[in-house]
Structures are given as C-alpha cells and as structure tokens.
Design brief:
By secondary structure, the chain is of the alpha/beta class. It has helices at about 15-25, 25-35, 45-55, 75-85, 95-100, 100-110, 130-135, 135-140, 210-220, 225; strands at about 5, 10, 40, 55, 60, 90, 115-125, 145-155, 160-165, 190-195, 195-200. The chain is built from ten helices and eleven strands. Helix 3 packs parallel to helix 4. It is globular and about 50 Å long.
C-alpha cells in the first residue's frame, strides 16, 4: 500500500447540500473522531483518487451518497483494491440517506459482495454476539446492546459480518402504520473481512447514539476512549 498515515479520510463527493448537512448533523461524530486522530476531506473524485494513490489511512469514511454514482465507478474499484490490500472503508453517516438502491447494489458488486439494498424503516436492533467476537472485548465495550433506528437495511450479509440485527419478535416501529414483522435476515450494519482489509456499512439515517458508538468501534476505538 502507499505511505501510511494515522488520518481518517472523509469522502464528501455529493453536492454542497449534502456536505452542509453532514457538517451540521454529524458535528458530534466529527468532534469525537477529531479528538483521537487527524482527519482530511476529499471533496472531488480527482482529489480522492490522488490521495488513495499516495497514502493509506486509518480508515476511509464515505459519508454521503456521492461515491455511489455511476461516474465514480473507477473510484469504487480503486477503493475495493485499497481494502483488499489491507485498508478499511466504511459507508456511513449520510450515505444511506442519499444513495439510490440501484447504485448501492452496483457499488457492492465492485467490492465482490452479494449485498443488496434492503428495507427502509425503523425497528429495534440487537448487537450480534458474533460481531462482539470480531471486534474484541475492548472495542465492543461501549456498544449499546440494543437500540431503535430508522435505517436502510442490507440484505445478503453473512451472519458473522452483521453488527446489529432485528430479532424474530422485532416489529416495524411507526407512528403512522400498524406494527408489522420485519425481515430479520437483514441488518442495520455490517463489518466484513475483504481480502486483507475491512468493509463496513452503517445504515442508520438519524445519527443515533448507538450508531455513533458503533462507528467509533469500527474505527478501532472504544466509546470510553472517545469520551476522554
């Protein structure tokens, strides 16, 4: 891989409105990350490609829907190669709010995954015991055992790569519609070994505290670390 740094790289490849929402809605997340490690933003495809060609990062966070558009297919493939060589890429924050399902499905193909865009609703999710083993006791220490989130779910994720899952008794939580059972084969979030690296996804669209703690854990820290 290219020269290694301790930085976290944010990919902000959507329009100005997405960037503005990210900076406002996820200010608390950015503050937590910034307290632990330097960060840098790539706001154009060319900038992202250049950085990927010359550096490796603690993690790359694709935080809006811009990465998934078809014109960024070459960058998606570059990211996939980056992960296979040992990098970490996590699709999170505004990604699930602004990505089109068809674009998401195509994106996963570039990462050689069978994942598909799933249902979109709120339900209560529970921490997967297998994910606790993947992360280890220290990184998983600050994770919420369960929490309610509105999310764009993922389908076709291996059991061992699911981070939070609904239980058989979980129901769609809505103030408008009658509660109904959810598809408990889908997942709120995933963290998957791909080649020598890690591919992550968090589908929460409302920046729930449980998702914030999960992101910090995927970055290799515990919630206690980021609250110091």
């Amino acid at each position: 891989m290219a020269a290694s740094t301790a930085q976290v790289l944010y990919l902000l490849l959507g329009d100005d409105a997405q960037a503005s929402i990210f900076h406002d809605l996820y200010q608390n997340v950015r503050t937590r990350i910034n307290s632990l490690t330097p960060t840098i933003e790539a706001k154009t495809t060319v900038a992202a490609q250049s950085l990927l060609s010359t550096q490796s990062f603690k993690a790359i966070l694709a935080v809006d829907g811009g990465i998934a558009v078809r014109r960024n297919n070459a960058l998606q493939q570059q990211l996939a190669s980056y992960v296979k060589l040992g990098g970490t890429v996590i699709f999170c924050c505004l990604f699930s709010s602004f990505v089109r399902p068809s674009d998401m499905d195509k994106l996963w193909e570039n990462f050689e995954q069978p994942w598909k865009s799933g249902d979109y609703h709120r339900t209560t999710f529970y921490l997967s015991q297998k994910m606790k083993s993947v992360l280890g006791s220290q990184r998983a220490a600050g994770l919420e055992r369960e929490y309610s989130a509105k999310a764009l779910h993922l389908k076709n994720v291996p059991v061992g790569s699911k981070a939070y899952v609904p239980l058989p008794q979980s129901m769609v939580e809505s103030r408008v519609f009658t509660p109904s059972p959810v598809d408990n084969s889908q997942t709120l979030a995933a963290f998957h070994k791909y080649g020598e690296g890690w591919l992550g996804y968090i589908g929460d669209v409302n920046n729930e505290t449980g998702s914030q703690s999960l992101l910090m854990a995927l970055l290799g820290t515990s919630s206690s670390d980021s609250s110091r």
